[in-house]
Amino acid sequence: MTTTMRKDWDTYFMDIAYMVSTRSRCPRRHVGALLVQGKKLLGTAYNGAPMGVPDCSEAGCMIAEQYEKVIVDGSEQMVKKQRCIRTIHAEQNLLLFTDRNDREGSTVYVTDQPCWTCANMLANSGVVEIVYHRPYKKDSDKVAAMMEHKGIVFRQLQHYHPPAESVMDEVRE
């Protein structure tokens, strides 16, 4: 008799988040998010244009440039950020399509570390834990600091490997 190893809960839920991300039509990055309470899956979402609106694969990306002052090695520097403003992020869609009562005390699994805007929204959503796989370096330090301040468990699955069928051919920053 052959016994197969059972996946741990983090791997199980992150696999689902990656499979949800395959619904995204964003040419830059596919992101999936889940709302989990205990071991119960309460909702899924992915990034994309609002329902009924042409998405980036049909109408092109709407890139906005922003500048942010950061401290690097003790000196101030201006860093340019590019963001697509046509797309609603997976975390935002998850919050739009789940109930506040379900979010209280829950965990969010997301393929990518939340950006600053999504982190702010999640910090006020009632969730107590955020688990992600891929880092988002543009906002990483300030998001981690805010989550620590809020007392939200914020952790990266560093040794996780997503299902092969869920990985984009090319990921752009």
TrEMBL record:
GO cellular component: cytoplasm
Binding site for Zn(2+): H89, C115, C118
Active site: E91
Pfam families: dCMP_cyt_deam_1
Keyword Transcription regulation attributed: no
Cofactor(s) in the UniProt record: Zn(2+)
InterPro entries per record: APOBEC/CMP_deaminase_Zn-bd, CMP_dCMP_dom, Cytidine_deaminase-like, dCMP_deaminase, dCMP_deaminase-rel, Deoxycytidylate_deaminase_dom
Molecular function in Gene Ontology: dCMP deaminase activity; zinc ion binding
Residues passing through the membrane, by range: none
Leader peptide range in chain numbering: none
Gene Ontology terms: biological process: pyrimidine nucleotide metabolic process
Keywords, sorted A to Z: Hydrolase, Metal-binding, Zinc
PANTHER family xrefs: DEOXYCYTIDYLATE DEAMINASE (PTHR11086:SF18), DEOXYCYTIDYLATE DEAMINASE-RELATED (PTHR11086)
Family according to the record: Belongs to the cytidine and deoxycytidylate deaminase family.
Name of the molecule in the record: dCMP deaminase family protein
Native organism: Paenibacillus alvei (Bacillus alvei)
Source organism phylogeny: Bacteria, Bacillati, Bacillota, Bacilli, Bacillales
